[in-house]
Fold Thioredoxin family protein.
Amino acid sequence: MHILQSIEEFEQFKSSSAVIFEFTADWCGDCRFIDPFMPEVVEKFSNYKFVKVDRDKFLDLCIDLGIIGIPSFLAYENGIELGRFVSKDRKTQEEIENFISNLK
């Protein structure tokens, strides 16, 4: 999984092929909960590029995108939002995989 380095990089990923942004933070217990199974999710959905976004480093971006709770996920393809799984609730592997499976 790629770690986002800049807003410019966010725009590049967003405008390219299928990408899923995972919004997270080091202090977030629910974010740490999903860490062990995320490599399996990434491997299962290899048609997507996965990019981890540190909420604390990109707070303005999160505000602009309406990312209020973490962990949260945003999916794009060629600059078009495909879907979002945004809430402050803990997410299971099954819930994340269902979200990705139902993207159009």
User: Anything to note?
Assistant: The two ends are 22 Å apart (CA to CA). Residues 31 and 102 are 22 Å apart (CA to CA). DSSP finds five helices and five strands in the chain. Strands lie at 2-3, 19-24, 49-54, 72-77, 80-85.
